[in-house]
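Let us work through a complete example step by step.
Step 1: write down the sequence.
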Amino acid sequence: MHSTPSAEELLLLQEAGFDERDGTRAVVANQVSQVSGIYFLSAAGANLIKIGFVQNIDKIARRVDALQAGCPYALVNVFVARGASRREEWRAHRLFEEYRFRAEWFRCDGRLKSFLQFAVAYPDEASRRLRLQLED
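Step 2: predict the structure and record it as tokens.
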């Protein structure tokens, strides 16, 4: 007999890619192949970078299209740190705090600019290094 999970347990299960079905815990099929990530979008002509999170990196184009509707500058996806979490996105905001323009928008200067130049040339290594910096 299964006990009913608490709201906190259900939240943890959802974050881990599980759901509750008929009293058993089963992997949610459409979440198994999803890879989340932190994206870095450039607002062309504005020297600004948006640092955001996407649950499924295969849907970044859809996210860019949604953001583009309210942005007067052309948005270009510069880099995606594959496998990163929402918590790591918040930490990335703190990592580049000195360049914050407003909310999730940052001036593309200094360490942020250097990091993105490296990331364009070496995306896998940049993802690895960024995630190491964002660890607890």
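Step 3: interpret the result. Residues 19-32 have pLDDT under 50 and may be disordered.
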